[in-house]
């Protein structure tokens, strides 16, 4: 059996003490000469020694890990978000532990407890299921810093805010400019704060321009492709000249449902989404949407969290990110 290389082997090869090797490899070897430090690092690489994680944790009092909890990694939105998290975590010398709960609250709770048990230094929670009570019991009492996405109504803490209200306004402006007034809006039954802001921005803009909006034009359905597909059968969709899908996955599901009912996009009905995921540029016709900077959201959340981990007493910060309209081929003049 091949024996694992230990810190004793590095010490013996370097001709220095185990304590000296430990301090140098953990970034606390400033009192040793540059020659000694170089010698230790040379034999570490030559022998292939990897410091024991648990021992390093005890020395530096940090696991150098952050937990990331998402509802569904299959959603391109969260895939892009995670890319932003990974890039900034790498730059900040943290390892992200990523969990996808697949919209299962029990699994989500289990993952949350597991991340705490593994002593992560902080958490990014991009899920709508975590309650204020769970946060208080599991995170605050354990002194674990965290960043919440989509739940900006929770009182204190660092925040990454996207101007979702303006995003809803942009969707309304665009459809009205094309002559649409009979517009169906497809949203989830239990909407998070960011979704509510999009919806309110859309409705308020319609009303402010003299186009009263009735709740009869709202379709509640799961916030995924299947939900969008099912929404195509709703009566108000049949009467609409345009549809505002509250996210791009719903919009892509709508494509299939509308096509099966003999409706052409945008000749018979226009469709606008929200998020600007990669798929939107590859469906036919290419999807008009509201772009939000998902990659940058992941970067900003990770930056705020690592800063909080290193300085827990710093004032709370809010990073605000803009949205913009991306015009493609799925919207046209009202029929």
Beta-strand residue percentage = 15-25%
The CATH architecture of the largest domain can be given as 3-Layer(aba) Sandwich
CATH homologous superfamily descriptor of the largest domain: Response regulator
Q: Describe the main β-sheet briefly.
A: 6 strands, mixed
Number of separate helices: 13
The assigned structural class equals: alpha/beta
Principal-axis shape equals elongated
CATH class of the largest domain: Alpha Beta
Number of strands: 12
Strand order of the largest sheet: 7-6-8-9-10-12
The CA-CA distance between the termini, in Å, is 76 Å
Oligomer: single chain
Average residue-wise pLDDT: 87
H and E string:
HHHHEHEHEHEEHEHEHHEHEEHEE
Low-confidence stretches: none
The share of residues in helices is 40-55%
Number of domains: 3
Radius of gyration: 25 Å
CATH topology tier name of the largest domain = Rossmann fold
């Amino acid at each position: 059996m091949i024996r694992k290389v230990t810190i004793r082997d590095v010490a013996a090869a370097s001709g220095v003490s185990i304590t000296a090797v430990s301090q140098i490899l953990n970034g606390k070897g400033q009192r040793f000469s540059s020659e000694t430090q170089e010698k230790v690092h040379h034999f570490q690489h030559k022998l292939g020694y990897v410091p024991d994680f648990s021992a390093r944790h005890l020395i530096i009092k940090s696991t150098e890990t952050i937990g990331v909890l998402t509802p569904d990694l299959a959603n391109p939105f969260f895939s892009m978000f995670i890319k932003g998290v990974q890039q900034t975590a790498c730059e900040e010398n943290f390892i992200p532990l990523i969990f996808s709960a697949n919209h299962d609250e029990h699994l989500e709770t289990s993952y949350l407890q597991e991340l705490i048990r593994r002593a992560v230094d902080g958490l990014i929670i991009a899920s709508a299921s975590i309650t204020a009570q769970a946060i208080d019991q599991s995170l605050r009492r354990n002194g674990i810093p965290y960043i919440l996405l989509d739940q900006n109504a929770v009182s204190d803490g660092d925040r990454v805010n996207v101007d979702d209200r303006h995003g809803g306004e942009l969707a309304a402006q665009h459809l009205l400019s094309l002559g649409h007034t009979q517009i169906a809006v497809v949203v989830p039954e239990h909407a998070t704060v960011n979704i509510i802001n999009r919806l309110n921005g859309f409705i308020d803009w319609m009303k402010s321009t003299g186009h009263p909006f009735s709740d009869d034009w709202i379709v509640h359905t799961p916030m995924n492709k299947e939900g969008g597909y099912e929404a195509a059968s709703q009566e108000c969709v049949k009467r609409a000249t345009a549809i505002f899908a509250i996210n791009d996955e719903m919009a892509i599901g709508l494509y299939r449902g509308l096509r099966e009912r003999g409706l052409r996009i945008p000749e018979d009905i226009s469709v606008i989404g929200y998020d600007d995921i990669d798929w939107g540029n590859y469906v036919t016709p290419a999807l008009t949407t509201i772009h939000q900077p998902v990659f940058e959201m992941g970067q900003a959340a990770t930056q705020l969290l690592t800063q909080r981990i290193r300085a827990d007493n710093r004032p709370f910060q809010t990073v605000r990110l803009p949205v913009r309209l991306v015009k493609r081929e799925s919207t046209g003049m009202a029929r």
